[in-house]
Amino acid sequence: MITNKEPLRGRPIVKAFFEKRTFSVQYVVADPETKRCAIIDPVLDFDPKSGATATHSADELLAHIDQEGYSLEWILDTHPHADHFSAAGYLKDKTGVPTAIGEKVTEVQKLWKGLYNLPDSFPTDGSQWDRIFADGERFTIGKMDVEVMFTPGHTLASVAYIVGDAAFIHDTIFMPDGGTARADFPGGSAKALWNSIQRIMALPDNTRLFTGHDYMPGGREPRWESTVAQQRAENTHLTKAKTEGEFVALREKRDRELPMPKLILHSLQVNIRGGRLPEPENNSKRYLKIPLDALDAPWDE
Ligand SMILES: N[C@@H](CCC(=O)N[C@@H](CS)C(=O)NCC(=O)O)C(=O)O
Ligand SMILES: [Fe+2]
């Protein structure tokens, strides 16, 4: 773990790209010395009303990389997203750069393979990515060290990427006024989320924390960066719920009231394929499959 090993070298330049349809934050994380960079959590645009997909968001990341003279070394996802398609597959095809995610993605693949009744031939070994990371594994972006921290709860495969003094903590905690992520998707767990949040809060106080979404509470402008110290002092859920029991109660109560993300059933079948759309049928068109009555709805909303 972080504390037992050599300190992580590097102070990345972080550029965030806010995707306003799904309130997602995508990142380009660059080593100022070598100009090598990684993309974290890229979005493939999807309009559910028309069924149209597009690569505007992903292309914007590539344009930034080009403009800054960076060279792309990794395409990373923190978790199989339940509210948007990952652009990892598109970016891999376009650049040839390796993709990666946490190793427990194989469990998510197994779970959703069942829910979608995918054919036996659908691989659930993570082979859709070039690399799947275990807890505590390290790699580099240029000369910066990255440590993978397993942070389940929101999904059972979620990981955070600690890059030098910055941590990409996806859907664990949001900005202090946004609280914490939900933990009620299949494979989610409020108790696991609490433990993951404790691991993040044990990072050095001045660690720069970059979140995966910002839902702009109260209609304020989108924001994505905080610190451990700031979260400890201000996070609206963590200042209310001081123990695991209190947190689990708060989280589960709120989750019972939240409708499922609009795109959960659309997204998972793409994201368990490494951000690739389903194979075309014999008319060369691609189709999504929507399982009925697989998830619960809060009808009394
Ligand atoms: N209204 C959004 C909700 C998306 C959602 O559920 N987001 C997750 C992260 S993927 C979350 O933790 N939300 C917390 C909250 O809405 O309070 C949608 O339909 O896409
Ligand atoms: Fe998420």
Number of domains: 1
Average pLDDT for all residues: 96
The outline comes out as globular
State the end-to-end CA separation: 43 Å
In DSSP terms (H or I, runs of 4 or more residues), the helix count works out at: 7
Domain Metallo-beta-lactamase: 23-213
Protein name: Beta-lactamase hydrolase-like protein
Pfam families: Lactamase_B (PF00753)
Keywords: Metal-binding
Give me the secondary-structure topology.
Layout: E1 13-19, E2 24-30, E3 36-40, E4 43-47, E5 52-54, H1 56-68, E6 71-76, E7 85-86, H2 88-95, E8 99-102, H3 105-116, E9 131-133, E10 138-141, E11 144-150, E12 159-163, E13 166-170, H4 190-201, E14 208-211, E15 225-227, H5 228-234, H6 244-257, H7 264-271
Parallel strand pairs: 3-6, 6-8, 8-9, 13-14
Antiparallel strand pairs: 1-2, 2-3, 4-5, 4-7, 10-11, 11-12, 12-13, 14-15
Helix pairs in contact: 4-6
Description:
By secondary structure, the chain is of the alpha/beta class. The chain has a single domain, classed as Ribonuclease Z/Hydroxyacylglutathione hydrolase-like (Metallo-beta-lactamase, Chain A, 4-Layer Sandwich). 25% of the residues lie in helices and 23% in strands. The chain has helices at residues 56-68, 88-95, 105-116, 190-201, 228-234, 244-257, 264-271; strands spanning 13-19, 24-30, 36-40, 43-47, 52-54, 71-76, 85-86, 99-102, 131-133, 138-141, 144-150, 159-163, 166-170, 208-211, 225-227. The strands form three sheets. It has a six-stranded mixed beta sheet, covered by helices on one side. A six-stranded mixed beta sheet has the order 10-11-12-13-14-15. The protein is globular. The model has no long low-confidence stretch (mean pLDDT 96). It binds glutathione and fe (ii) ion. Glutathione (GSH) binds at residues 22, 82-83, 171, 181-182, 213, 215, 258, 261-263. Fe (ii) ion (FE2) is lined by residues 79, 81-83, 154, 171.
